[in-house]
Specification:
The chain has 111 residues and is an alpha+beta fold. The longest helix has 24 residues. It is built from 2 helices and 5 strands. The radius of gyration is 14 Å and the shape is globular. Helix content is 41%, strand content 32%.
Length: 111
């Protein structure tokens, strides 16, 4: 299962951590994994391309489960921080949409 853990304060996404594999289908044919990966990497690439270096990034492709972690830098200008938050929220809406249809394979948790 893909697990998405979102850490927030009152108004901001502080970090997003994604672990695991969907195991919906065989590797290379797993549409849940492919969809989640496309959303995550598309959002990250959009932030990097449109806003510059705004996130701390850690990732690994482990046999027992993938790993992806992003955290906005704390010292961003207010306008850049606002745009970063908007793109993070859009990413989370897209992941939640996948989870609505494939909840046995992807789970979102907000803490």
């Amino acid at each position: 299962m893909i697990r998405v853990k979102v850490r927030r304060d009152e108004a901001h996404v502080r970090s997003v951590e994604v672990t695991g594999h969907a195991e919906f289908a065989e590797p290379g044919s797993d549409l849940v994994c492919a969809g989640a990966s496309a959303v995550i990497f598309g959002a990250y690439n959009a932030m990097e391309s449109l806003l510059g270096q705004v996130l701390l990034l850690e990732m690994a492709d482990k046999r027992e489960g993938g790993y992806f972690y992003v955290e906005p830098y704390a010292d961003l200008a207010p306008e850049v921080s606002e745009r970063t938050q908007l793109l993070l929220e859009a990413m989370l809406v897209q992941l939640a949409t996948i989870a609505e249809s494939y909840g046995d394979y992807i789970q979102l948790e907000q803490v």
